[in-house]
Amino acid sequence: MGRLRTSRVLPGFGLSLGYTLAYLSLIVLIPFSAVFIRASGMGWDAFWHAVSDERVVASYKLSFGASLLAAAINTVFGLVLAWGLVRYSFPGKKLVDALIDLPFALPTAVAGISLTALYAKNGWIGQYLEPAGLKIAFGPAGVLVALIFIGLPFIVRTVQPILEDFDTEFEEAAATLGASRWQTFQRVVLPTLLPALLTGFALAFARAVGEYGSVIFIAGNIPMVSEITPLMIITKLEQYDYKGATAIASVMLVVSFSLLLVINGLQAWTSRRLGSAT
Amino acid sequence: MSIEVRDIAKSFGAFRALDGISLDLPKGELIALLGPSGCGKTTLLRIIAGLEKADAGTIRLSGADATDKHVRERQVGFVFQHYALFRHMSVFENVAFGLRVKPRGQRPSEKEIRERVMRLLDLVQLGWLAERFPSQLSGGQRQRVALARALAVEPQVLLLDEPFGALDAKVRKELRRWLRRLHDELYISSIFVTHDQEEALEVADRIVLMNKGRIEQIGRPREVYEHPATAFAMSFIGTANEFRGRVEGANLRVGNDLLPHGQAGLEDGSPFVGYARPHDTEIVAEDTTGLGIAAKVSRILANGAAVRVELVANGPAREGVTDYFEVDLTAAEIAARGLTPGQRVRIRSRRLSLFAEPRR
């Protein structure tokens, strides 16, 4: 009986589960727990002091706020981009498609430098924006621009395959039933793409929260205004305040993890409604 | 709603999908667009619906020009081969979709929507599944939901693209009968596309037979079956034995054999192709006249009262092709004649349909 109960159609369950857990522990869980163990050695008061410092709190607001906003903006425009790439054919389409991945491949510092050069007061774009009262480089807006830049490919690449599989028949069906283009998009296309959009949003958000290289060049790093949390961690490290650094890092970890958990939960819920899960 | 199709042409690149199609479909009939795959029948249906634009020609719906009308305004119900149900909506919401997207002024109240959707779901016998999602339904149920959804907007004409194509044989047969009943109840002009001649013969009031972007024949099922207008119509609809040869007096010379054609005034030596239905074909014993196509009984397939005899052409194969023939007899006849597989016989036709062929 015991043998019957444990035999499965797919062999190797024990082996693959063991491998998954061991690998995940080695690569992800152990380094993360080290953060918490280190931070826990400093005592509650010192911990609270480190993570609730005014400058640090301002940096949380900027980091998480700008990351969420950048991911949201990317979700809208990434969808438009993916739509254009999937639905229409135009000369140079392959080239545009390859360009999308560029923010993945570029060292982020290079991105930061070129963005700064563009948006600075004497840059190509900045020279027109700044007289109009729009100060992008060396401020929170610069952080947002950098985070939008690095997050774009995530949305495009998660939505694109779903859109490619999405039969035009559904839109045709909506049209024969009298729906306008906008109603079709809102009621038929968007709900189908929602799980993919949420996944892309989560990825872009996670990337933005952890981003360092491109942001520090364009942010200007003004205390209380344009400092991001990763920068606060580096600053602490440079002052040999390892415990303070890990304390801030643990807060980042907890917040990011809870946000990702919520987004993934939403994603699972929407895809279940699409009937892809049984 | 009557449908008038005038000189519709459509090409995809170098391929001529439709080549000057004209059709007049009166109100309230159930019409089958029948033809082999690639004959343009689906393209024609999509052009009537407004999902595709014709290169030339006009479409008139209820006498009014609809050629440039958007699909939204044509008031057609369209049922897709693969249902195209919205996966994120329940069965109820799928059927309600067409009502919910109406402009605010014409939109029925929530209560009316409920009543109408439930009435339609009851009509397709799926009221008990209203809260399910499409992924939880069988193929036949999905197709019925798709039909209810198309009917919800009270279309003037119902267009169905291979509606039963993706279903298994038993469900197909059931749905076919059901569609016929539904049509008789609602009396809504309907066109359905099919490549299955049996389906067309069984369900339709009228058959439009298409081949290579052209119409071969339009007529009642009986008419098309009994009086095929072209060689294509003869060979595509129903089973037919084919005899290809040249006229020699009162006979058709097929290879080494002579087949009486029973028609007068045919020019000697002109090429013809003759067709005979299995029930119009007879098996005769070898006799002194030597008339009839020499063949050998290969199989005897008993199927209830009717028995189908399969024969292989005897004698030299024509142009390297083995010819097969089918003859319908009754079990009693088989017994009386003592037919057995392997027996050499000749076959003749009681009624041969002849079509002239181009001279080679």
Main β-sheet description of chain B: 6 strands, mixed
Helix content of chain A: over 70%
Q: Mind telling me the CATH superfamily name of the largest domain in chain A?
A: MetI-like
SS element count, helices of chain A: 14
Distance between the termini of chain A: 29 Å
Following the backbone from N to C, one meets helices and strands of chain A in this order, namely HHHHHHHHHHHHHH
CA-atom Rg of chain B in angstroms: 25 Å
For the largest interface in this structure, which chains are involved and how many residues does each contribute?
A: A-B, 22 and 27 residues
Strand content of chain B: 25-35%
Mean pLDDT of chain A: 87
Query: What proportion strand of chain A?
Result: under 5%
Query: What is the second-level CATH architecture of the largest domain in chain A?
Result: Orthogonal Bundle
Shape of chain B: elongated
Strand order, main sheet of chain B: write it out.
6-7-8-3-9-10
Describe how the helices and strands are arranged.
The complex is a heterodimer of chains A (278) and B (360).
Chain A: H1 2-6, H2 13-40, H3 44-51, H4 54-87, H5 93-100, H6 102-105, H7 108-119, H8 126-129, H9 140-165, H10 168-176, H11 181-210, H12 213-219, H13 229-238, H14 242-273
Helix pairs in contact in A: 2-14, 3-14, 4-9, 4-11, 7-9, 7-12, 9-11, 9-12, 10-11, 11-14, 13-14
Chain B: E1 3-12, E2 15-25, E3 30-34, H1 41-49, E4 56-61, E5 64-65, E6 76-79, H2 91-100, H3 110-123, H4 139-152, E7 157-161, H5 169-186, E8 189-194, H6 197-203, E9 206-211, E10 214-219, H7 221-226, H8 231-236, E11 241-248, E12 251-254, E13 257-260, E14 271-276, E15 281-284, E16 293-303, E17 306-313, E18 324-330, H9 331-337, E19 344-349, E20 353-356
Parallel strand pairs in B: 3-8, 3-9, 6-7, 7-8
Antiparallel strand pairs in B: 1-2, 1-4, 4-5, 9-10, 11-12, 11-14, 12-13, 14-20, 15-19, 16-17, 16-19, 17-18
